[in-house]
Design brief:
The complex is a heterodimer of chains A (262) and B (289). Chain A has 10 helices and 2 strands. With 262 residues, chain A is mainly alpha-helical. Classes of the chains: A mainly alpha (262), B alpha/beta (289).
Chain lengths: 262, 289
């Protein structure tokens, strides 16, 4: 359960230590770069670079494979479907009735898949090296209102709670003879009502107490709220920012100003 | 100045017919440890919610009479202000902890009150140490046991440096080990820190040892209020309000009935042992058997 929701893994690498704000900016910049680059070999170079970062963050192969499993399926799907729906270009490799498979379309499919791979992996690095509390703190520090940050934090915090709640309600209903995995789609969704209703009731009750608890702890007492932990940019964070800026600015300059085809 | 003063308070929840609290008057002195005993629907939770102004500010209904905490009428100040005087701990450990780490949980109150960072750090360490959760700073509250969660909830209330702590059946969902840990924290709060505590309970056994006063409630009414020894003299009164009397006091009451006296009144096993030994070993002058 927890592995699905929280990808964060504790470790002491330079990526784990990096200021979460820098990491958020980095992820945005690298995502942008994945869109700017249009040549397959450049995208593959970017993907290699991202995987190098992942390796430096001490991500194990099994963990990464688990997290990126769905993305990989998606990439395979892109590679298969792209040439089918994109009949432009020559030479034609094969044709079946109205469907034409052309060589450029095959490469375009692979390129798009590589782009998706870059995007997914770079976001995975962020989630892998940054705890949820750091993420929320970074967002608030970057100007997101505290209420929104708190709402996000509470949602993330209660996901596993409700996950466990749903599991125990399912078990309780199964113990009374409810069959959740038998029958057609309609029957099954009908049976899930018996799980859904107690879950919603319980969630509402939790929300009720939660609001009382928030108020009891002086929530909203003052506008000039203080924070226990502050984020501080260290010299290495500025270096990382500069390197990132260079990585983005050079290709962007080449592509949009010098009109180089990259 | 009283820590808490309820003056002829009546409260009815919105859309409800009955008075959840009916003409309740109660005074709690500073430093006093008061245990409110009653079963479901006795009004003890309602009483707890009144102490920091959640009633009437967050929970609507018909409120009559006045509630003041350390001289301030809670109806006339926002909850966030009453919260600096009264810390409150609820029954459900799961729904009152909402941060991603224990440390943030305990820091949340003082952060809202704009306490300087260094001072928050000191308070977090102090509060965690007091409840025996030192070193758990970076753990997720979700990963803790029920008893640990309740102790973190107490720390989160204490970090605002309240003068009074109100606990609404904090041991309700806990296992025996969790209960023991919780009650030892409450005992420390009273004995080492002189904190004013109001504890709502449906079980008289554990709170007995360190309560200055027992208050019995039933159907929104305050039935009796006095030192545990006096209130427990007649265990039948507790059973009447749906609360199980402590076993030793039942022994005392049985002995009194059997021997036709009223001299037995003990609250702990040690006291009981001493009193019974004394009775057994004493020379039988009157020839009574």
């Amino acid at each position: 359960m927890g592995g699905f929701i929280d990808l964060y893994t504790e470790a002491d690498t330079f990526l784990h230590r990096m200021d979460p704000r820098v990491k958020i900016v980095a992820v945005l910049l690298l995502s942008l770069l994945a869109f700017i680059l249009s040549h397959l070999y450049l995208l593959l170079a970017l993907l290699t670079f991202i995987f190098l970062l992942l390796f430096l963050a001490r991500a194990t192969i099994s963990r990464t494979a688990f997290a990126l499993k769905f993305v990989l399926r998606f990439m395979v799907l892109i590679i298969i479907l792209w040439p089918i729906f994109d009949p432009t270009g020559t030479p034609v490799l094969a044709s079946l009735g109205p469907i034409k498979i052309t060589e450029p379309a095959v490469w375009r499919g692979v390129t798009s898949a590589a782009r998706v791979g870059c995007l997914a992996t770079v976001w995975y690095i962020l989630m892998f090296t940054t705890s949820q509390r750091d993420l929320v703190r970074a967002l608030v520090k970057m100007g997101v209102r505290f209420d929104f940050g708190l709402t996000l934090a509470i949602s993330l915090r209660f996901l596993p709670t409700f996950g466990a709640l749903i599991d125990s309600i399912k078990d309780a209903q199964r113990a009374r003879g409810l069959e959740l995995s038998k029958g057609g789609l309609l029957k099954r969704s009908k049976n899930y009502v018996a799980v859904l209703v107690p879950t919603i009731v319980s969630a509402l009750r939790t929300a009720d107490t939660l609001s009382l608890a928030l108020q009891s702890r002086a929530y909203g007492a003052r506008a000039d709220r203080t924070y226990l932990r502050d984020l501080n940019m260290r010299p290495s964070d500025y270096v990382a920012l500069a390197v990132l800026a260079a990585i983005l600015v050079l290709p962007a300059f080449a592509k949009f100003v010098m009109q180089v085809d990259i | 100045m009283k820590a808490l003063e309820l003056n002829n308070v009546r409260f009815k929840y919105r859309d409800f017919q009955n008075w959840a609290l009916d003409s309740v008057s109660l005074e709690v002195e500073k430093g006093e440890f008061v245990t409110i005993l009653g079963c479901n629907g006795s009004g003890k939770s309602t009483l707890c919610l009144l102490t920091n102004g959640l009633i009437p500010h967050a929970i609507q209904g018909n409120l009559q009479g006045s509630v003041s905490v350390f001289g301030n009428n809670v109806g006339e100040q926002p909850v966030s202000q009453s919260a600096t005087k009264v810390g409150i701990v609820f029954q459900e450990p799961e729904s009152q902890l909402f941060c991603m780490s224990v440390e943030e949980e305990v820091a949340f109150g003082p952060e809202n009150l704009a306490v300087p960072r260094e001072e928050i750090k000191t308070r977090v360490e102090w509060a965690l140490e007091l409840v025996g959760m030192k070193g758990y700073n970076n753990r997720s509250p979700f990963s803790l046991s029920g008893g640990q969660k309740q102790r973190v909830a107490i720390a989160a209330a204490l970090s605002m440096r309240p003068e009074m702590l109100v606990l609404d059946e904090p041991a309700y969902a806990l296992d025996p080990v969790g209960r023991l840990g919780l009650y030892s924290v409450l005992r420390d709060l009273k004995e080492k820190h002189g904190m004013t505590v109001i504890l709502a309970e449906r079980d008289a056994e554990e709170a007995l040892a360190f309560s200055d006063r027992f208050v019995l409630m039933k159907d929104g009414k305050l039935l009796e209020s006095g030192p545990p020894r006096q209130v427990l003299r007649d265990p039948a009164k507790l059973r009447e309000i749906g609360v199980a009397p402590p076993q030793v006091t039942e022994v005392a009451s049985l002995l009194n009935t059997r021997m036709g006296t009223s001299k037995f009144s003990f609250l702990t096993v040690e006291e009981a042992e001493r009193a019974i030994l004394e009775e057994v070993l004493k020379p039988k002058k009157e020839g009574r058997r």
